[in-house]
Prior knowledge:
Blueprint: H1 11-29, H2 31-38, H3 52-55, H4 63-84, H5 86-120, H6 124-135, H7 142-155, E1 160-162, E2 169-171, H8 172-191, H9 203-222
Antiparallel strand pairs: 1-2
Helix pairs in contact: 1-2, 1-4, 4-5, 4-7, 5-6, 5-7, 5-9, 7-8, 7-9, 8-9
Protein name: Rhomboid family intramembrane serine protease
Pfam family, one: Rhomboid
Transmembrane segments: 12-33, 53-77, 89-110, 130-153, 174-195, 201-220
Amino acid sequence: xxxxxxxxxxxxxxxxxxxxxxxxxxxxxxxxxxxxxxxxxxxxxxxxxxxxxxxxxxxxxxxxxxxxxxxxxxxxxxxxxxxxxxxxxxxxxxxxxxxxxxxxxxxxxxxxxxxxxxxxxxxxxxxxxxxxxxxxxxxxxxxxxxxxxxxxxxxxxxxxxxxxxxxxxxxxxxxxxxxxxxxxxxxxxxxxxxxxxxxxxxxxxxxxxxxxxxxxxxxxxxxxxxxxxxx
Length: 231
């Protein structure tokens, strides 16, 4: 399975983590180049390139960002990979990551259409918002990570999970439902400018990862191929 395949139980998960760490090092060495070429920009941005839909999944905005994403991937991605095999897990990971990017971009498109209508009416603020949208990069594996969490909850709904802070223990299915509701509420409010987040968070990318993960698992269940190691 590549340069980290040493007979372990989750080689794909380990390889994904290693690639993310290597890319983080490259960002530290030349942030401007990496962001401009490999972060995901809105399609009408002068910085947009098609491959960014994939490459942005391996980039992160800081140590805590990559640490929590990769820690979550290690815990829950390994469980899915052991259940499905590395090929099927990779398909799931990339489908959820790409699905997250598609939903995120779709929401951006809706925002852009609203601002363009306001610009036609002479809104200077809308013009500034549209300009900022085109210059704002999106990075992170969070969409795929949320898809992995959704996948784990669908395969092991009654597994009991405990948060570090606050120390709450719930079944996996309830954690995922709560996360989805929170992301949806905050995402809707952030579109309307109600929230005041200091860091832009792609809430609809998280929801996109969960949505496409759910769709793929339901498709596999319908085809009765969920556990046959085929992709």
